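Record pair follows.
FIRST:
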Amino acid sequence: MRGRVAALALLSLGLTLTVPASPVRADLTIFQTPTQTQTIESTQTNWGPGTVSLLGKDPFTIQKFDPTKITLPPGTPPGQKAVLYEVVLSLKYEFQNTVQMDFIDRATATVTSSGIMHLMINGVHVSNSVLDSVNSPGFFTQKTLSYPDQLKVPHYLDPVKVVSGTSALGYFDSTTLNIFTGSGTISAPVIATAASSYMTSSGNGVGGSSTFASAALSVTYYYFIAPEPSSFALMGLGAVGLYVIVRGRHHRKGLETA
């Protein structure tokens, strides 16, 4: 009997120390916090943290997931708390690119332009990839024209090309979840860069491109309700206490028999 109780006590305590609350049950209920969204309006690249025209907008400031500020569902047993399950980062982006060429005499010219956007967390990337916290969006465009064969006037202004979309990733790993858990805020700088090049055959001319970009970052937390570690510890200590009581009773019986 003592062996079985001792085993139960040690097993309970062992589970307390080695098995943290984990979202593995099929009946686990996942809750969602309100989505935090911040926006940078269309601004000429290049920009990033500290850019004068973006002061107050970049880096974005996101409230961390604070378990003490989560309202638990009605009827939740005592000793429960909210545990962060997943962080979803969503970057909505847009590039507006315009190509321009000016010819002085007969020539064939090519303008190549490209751009890219990066999202970081607290100044460092939180994903396992080399570069970004979401898949880095970008664009590439190239325009080749000849004057006067294609163009009858020595000036060309390309209609604005718009490249837009959303890049999103969800994180379940403990390293990222720890970064987003706690009180206070976390910074999320967004960096947009663009470049262009101009090539021409024999002849003279100039060309290039102008790029504007905008960004909207959305962060959503998903969480579940689980017993606090202290509750598990009390269960383990209770099992040990039960073993001590039972052992004491058997010890007294042995003395009376003797």
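SECOND:
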Amino acid sequence: MSPTHELTDITWDEYLQQSSRPMIVMFYTHDCPHCFIMSPYFEKYAKEFDGKVDFIRVNIAENQTIMLRYGVMGTPTFAFFCEGHSIKMVAGEMYPALIKKFVEDSLQISPQCSRNTTWIDVGITGYA
């Protein structure tokens, strides 16, 4: 069984609200050659960090609401979420060691992320 979870537009919000661990999300498409290259490493690190970080996969071709909500413009895009909020995003194929470093850095900042982040109410706009 894969240590990653596949989420959809329907399952995303509930999972985000219930998760108590940091999340690393890989936004991908089935026809993305770079995603195909990165997937085995994403799975490997999901096993290595099992129980510490939730590894999530979202196919943006099939789940465009999530794609639009977070401004994902290309694949693969990796995003770190803390307490349900997107903290950091990295787009494109990268060296596998950088994914591991991304996860390790994310684990280091996750205890402080809620204290060190200024949340912006999405209802606030300059178009009143």
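COMMENT: The chain has a mean pLDDT of 84.
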